[in-house]
Amino acid sequence: MQAYQADLAKLQASDTVVFGVSIDSPAANAAFAKQIGVTFPLLSDMNREVLVQYGILDSFDKYASQGVKAEWARRTTFVVDKQGLIQHIDEGRDAVNPNTAVTVCTTLDSKAKS
Amino acid sequence: MRRGLIFLAAWALAAGLAAAQKPVIAKTSLKVGQPAPDFTMLSDQWEPVKLSDYRGKKNVILAFYVLAFTPG
Question: What are the E-state strand segments in B8-58?
Fold first, then answer.
């Protein structure tokens, strides 16, 4: 998340907003944002509906037979353009590095302004 | 024979249970060019954020992270 924060000014200049998303509560996300110095909103998908819709709900289910499991989001970044269409997807380790997403957004912006 | 049947029944039951408990992990089916599913979620400031509010206004980066307080 800090890497996206580092590029935030560049993204804002490209008419782009950034949202982090996880299954954590707003309270936990507020504490997390403060701890890591992130100023963009962190959104809560506490009922996992968005993760299911986006196809990135992952879980630890080794003890599911005992009725316990943990769920979380698979690390993924989506770039959505002004038409609401997905322009780019980074998955796994690729999603940690925002470089490609930033390039996609600056390119979208320069196309829109040309 | 009878023991075999019992074994078979136990195996079928176990297999059925295992299938029922298989986690539902949706595969990433979204592709570039498709509409991003709309959502409304609460921000860390307890404000609703609706994706479609940004349509026609801003590009949006959705950075899904594993869990708060984890690195990456």
Answer: 40-43, 48-50
